[in-house]
Amino acid sequence: MADEAPAKLIQIGPKGGPKKDGFNLVTERVVAVNPALKQIEVELLAYDGKTVVLDVDDEAVEDLQRVKVGDGATIRVVEEGGRRIAKNLRVRAKDPNAERADAMLLDLKDSHWLNRKYAAEILGELKDARAVKPLVDALTDEVGDVRQRAYDSLIKIGGIAVPSLVPLLVSEEDEVRQSVTEIIRKIGKPAVEPLATALAEADDRLKTRVLKVLDRMGYKPKTKDASKSEVPRLT
């Protein structure tokens, strides 16, 4: 792995040629850590996700042992004898909200309903877009309190949740269909554009439901020719 490093790393050299004091390599994700070989592999998002392998200096081995796969890191790289060596590794603090959302997304699948209930509530406060599909799924949870928290949280998340909710407007389950209708209505104005977009691709049954929801929200399609399939403007 170390023999290939110079060729793979040529693309990340500093502008203006080699620098005696090195340069900082900022990576969003550590791919692999090998303390035994004193090497680290990182993904370079600016280069279409290509990865590079760095040898780690003896003085930075202790830092290397604290790095975990998935971490973001800033690495001080120096050139010695034609090789690029990591002299210092610093893990960047993760967004605490993203970290909390990761934990809540796991808890939303927990076997204990209280954990699912709490997770559904917190995900609404965090408004993480990744929570939309899991929260939509939670609308059919076996526990009513979990369903209610998912309902409330989807309203808080708002317009970005609507495309995932629209297909359920024709659900065979009355409770699901009613819940989704009310969620969209309570989201209000941010739901209008996604609903209008859905009309363009909806079959007749879904189109009828979407139009009914829009009508109840006080919006009506404004088209010159009802036979045209273009997305209607809403008034």
What does this structure look like?
- The radius of gyration is 26 Å and the shape is elongated.
- Mean pLDDT is 85; it is low at 4-11 and 226-231.
- A six-stranded mixed beta sheet has the order 1-5-6-4-3-2. It has a two-stranded antiparallel ribbon with strand order 7-8.
- It is α+β, with helices and mostly antiparallel strands and 235 residues long.
- The protein has helices at 5-9, 61-64, 96-107, 113-126, 132-138, 144-157, 162-165, 174-187, 192-201, 204-216; strands at 23-27, 29-34, 39-44, 50-56, 73-80, 83-91, 221-222, 233-234.
- Helix 4 runs parallel beside helix 6 (144-157), helix 5 packs antiparallel against helix 6 and helix 9 runs antiparallel to helix 10.
